Amino acid sequence: MTDTNRKDIATPTRTRDILEKHGFSFKKSLGQNFLVDTNILHNIVDAAELSKQKGVIEVGPGIGALTEQLARAAGNVVAVEIDQRLLPILADTLSPYSNVQVVHGDVLDIDLRELLAVHFPQYEKVSVVANLPYYVTTPILMKLLESRLQLEHIVVMIQKEVAERIAAKPGTKDYGSLSVAAQFYAHAEVTMIVPASVFVPKPNVDSAVIKLSVLEKPSVEVNDEQLFFRVVRAAFAQRRKTLLNNLMNNLFKKDQKDLVIQILNQVGIDPGRRGETLTPKEFAILTNEIKRTDLLS
Ligand code: SAM
Fold it and tell me: How many angstroms separate the first and last alpha carbons of the chain?
């Protein structure tokens, strides 16, 4: 049997064999829940719309279950893994795939712009596809979005509850600063709900796959992205309070109230609205007006 005819890594028996062969023990602190269901993996890969002309960055390849499927679908795969113990295992399991490179490191520390320049100079379209370690889902997603890399899609398995927050629409209970941030940079869609039973070991929560199609540029250009996130965080600080009260309590000085009301009226946002009813576009317009008036300098 040739290597490529071998059973997929993401089957319960092959995964068990690999773990036994290398004497691997899971580290819960690194969010190590490996996928053992090829149907789920095919769904993830399909959602990423890959082809041999496209590149992929994977975060956390584990023993290579998803990496193998990505290698078959994409031109080039770079997988960033923090756990050194997995490197010899990956060298073994991924040996049939010459288009995969494993990089040892913490994805939060790595310079992704440099990674793209070094590994994907000839690829116009690069996506991030991953089964993310749950303990760092939000920091990883925010890093990917805020870095404004020219990514095509970000297709990731994350906790169901976080996926629902990311894709939530204004005015719903799940809508919050994470939804605004994600939807400011991308079109967000939950493509699949995934039961805990397809992982080894089983996590305590259900999971979901979210597809972020990164916008070429945000729907409204924001002059000051840091200020944008300060405004958003302030607006959601206390959900039962009005936008005006939240902005006054968390961003502006007491004596600036009349000016803040003036700014809100200027951009057509009723000061009595709740922050959670504002669209990402409205937050952007409001930020630009606050910046223009120089009220926070
Ligand atoms: N992709 C594999 C799969 O689907 O079976 C493993 C996914 S597992 C949920 C998460 C992986 O991310 C683990 O291999 C873990 O060691 C790795 N990891 C955890 N934190 C990381 C970080 N900060 N940077 C890179 N990899 C990380």
Answer: 68
Same domain, 255 and 288: yes
> In which region does residue 135 sit, left (phi positive, over 0), alpha (psi from -120 to 50) or beta (all else)?
alpha
The number of folded domains in the chain is 2
- Structure confidence at residue 1 as a pLDDT band (50, 70, 90): very low
Q: Is residue 220 part of a domain?
A: no
CA 36/CA 28 separation, integer angstroms: 17
Instruction: Give the whole-angstrom CA distance, residue 39 versus residue 31.
Output: 22
- CATH number for 275: 1.10.8.100
Q: Candidates 24, 70, 83, 134: which one to mutate for ligand 1, based on the most atoms within 8 Å of Cβ?
A: 83
What is the extent of the structural domain holding 93? 3-214
pLDDT in tens, 121-173: 887 899 999 999 999 999 999 999 988 888 999 999 999 999 999 999 999 99
pTM over 0.85: yes
Tell me whether strands 151-159 and 207-214 are parallel, antiparallel or unpaired.
antiparallel
Same domain, 281 and 140: no
Chosen domain end from 148, 179, 214: 214
pLDDT at 5 (0 to 100)? 55
pLDDT (tens digit per residue) in 241-284: 999 999 999 999 999 999 999 999 999 999 999 999 999 999 99
Say how many Å lie between the CA of residue 61 and the centre of ligand 1.
6
Interval 68-72 mean pLDDT: 98
On whether the CB atoms of residues 67 and 79 are closer than 8 A, the answer is yes
Could you tell me if 68 and 173 lie in one domain?
Answer: yes
Query: How much distance in Å is there from the Cα of 34 to the middle of ligand 1?
Result: 8
Decide if 79 contacts 100 (C-beta within 8 A): yes
Domain CATH number, residue 205: 3.40.50.150
Q: Is residue 114 part of a domain?
A: yes
